Amino acid sequence: MFRLFHHHVALSTLLELFADSLLCFLAALFIASALHMVPNGGDALAQSGMVWLAGGFAAVMLLLYASVGLYRRGTRSMGLGTLIQRAMLAIALGACITYLLFDSVAGEASPGYVVGLAMVYLLVGLVVVRAVIYMVQKAVGVPRVLIIGTGEDAQAVARDLATHSRIERQVVGFYPTTERTEGMRPDQRVFSRDRSIEEIVAEHDIDEIIVAVREQRGGALPMDQLLACRIAGTPILDLAGFYERARAEVPIDSLKASWLIYSQGFVQGPARRFAKRAFDIVTSATLLLLTSPIMLLTAIAIRLDSPGPIIYRQERVGLGGRTFMCLKFRSMTVDAEKDGVARWASQNDSRVTRVGAFIRKTRIDELPQLLSVLKGEMSMVGPRPERPSFVQQLREQIPFYDLRHSVKPGVTGWAQVRYSYGASVEDARRKHQYDLYYVKNNSLFLDILVLIETVSVVLFREGSR
């Protein structure tokens, strides 16, 4: 895992990005060469501007790949058929753009056949790249891990290491911090406490140590041994650090205020606020312009489908705990809460209208919130704003809940692209862990990543509502 602009990115993802960009760059040069648009010689090539054109083509194709979810966490576990289908969708869109571009500058030559060959080359190359990376990973092997602890947390860490492809590790064994080791399976190796951790690390070529123990006071942990291993160069992670890197969330059950205080992140300086506000204005204005026909058709459909207002206004909690009126296209009947009691929205909610079911699944109901972004009440990316009655309830049940109000609420967010629609307090706890990750690691890079992944979520219904 690499930390890129405060965000954890898998090495395999970086390799895929590099290989895909190189393939796309070469594909563009192939098209230009076949159409006799590339002069002979490297200097002539640079002067012709084809290098910039090929670079632009590569950037557009990577954006299309990302928009269909090829770089999303978990894509390595998707079937080959699904991978090819999504790649074909991105390549088909890229082919249309490429044909129009080269047709306008290629003169008398017809780019259709050449563009088709280039797209087949890209599809084959995309599959081959992922197959090669997978085989190399299997040949090289995965890092070897020692888990400190034998309790439920240690077992949960071991399960995550075995099932999450982006952080796959080989668990060599467990080092107990107490005499009790109940619950361990026969196939799980538990080292004797009579041995030092340094000896175990050296003997079994341990690459990483994960401390899966919540209570670290009272001498339960051999801190001197862990310090010796850390000084010798062995990385050591606690539970919060592990889950931040592995799941891109901050676990609240094992979280301490000291970890939040002393760890890196929470960048909210003037430069970050200026960049975020500029990004919000540009993206929201652009999306309002592009989606205005969709918004007009939605307004007409809502008016014809059921009686009531087109826009639904609801009080929500925003930056600093201040309330504002959140705007959405109405997707429920006007008497959805006629008794005045706030309720969680749920899947297959009977209060949802026919048009409402469609606009909720496609996220069209969120489009009026772009006006709130322009006003500065919301951001394009951030935690979803909750109703005051829910906030009062959740802050009593969820630790560090008010931290989400240290940034502006968002039209979309890290929790929205990583977790399905929530309809309970337990769902709110899980989504809050993703929100904490965003608050801690927020950056312009992460904002762009969330917007790109939102396209994939909407296209393939990866988050149910």
TrEMBL record:
Transferase keyword on record: yes
Keyword Membrane (UniProt): yes
Major localization class: membrane
Pfam families documented for this protein: Bac_transf
Domain Bacterial sugar transferase: 276-459
Swiss-Prot/TrEMBL keywords: Membrane, Transferase, Transmembrane, Transmembrane helix
GO MF term (any one): phosphotransferase activity, for other substituted phosphate groups
Family, per entry: Belongs to the bacterial sugar transferase family.
Classification via NCBIfam families: EPS_sugtrans, EpsB_2
Name of the protein: Polyprenyl glycosylphosphotransferase
Annotated source species: Caldimonas thermodepolymerans
Lineage: Bacteria, Pseudomonadati, Pseudomonadota, Betaproteobacteria, Burkholderiales
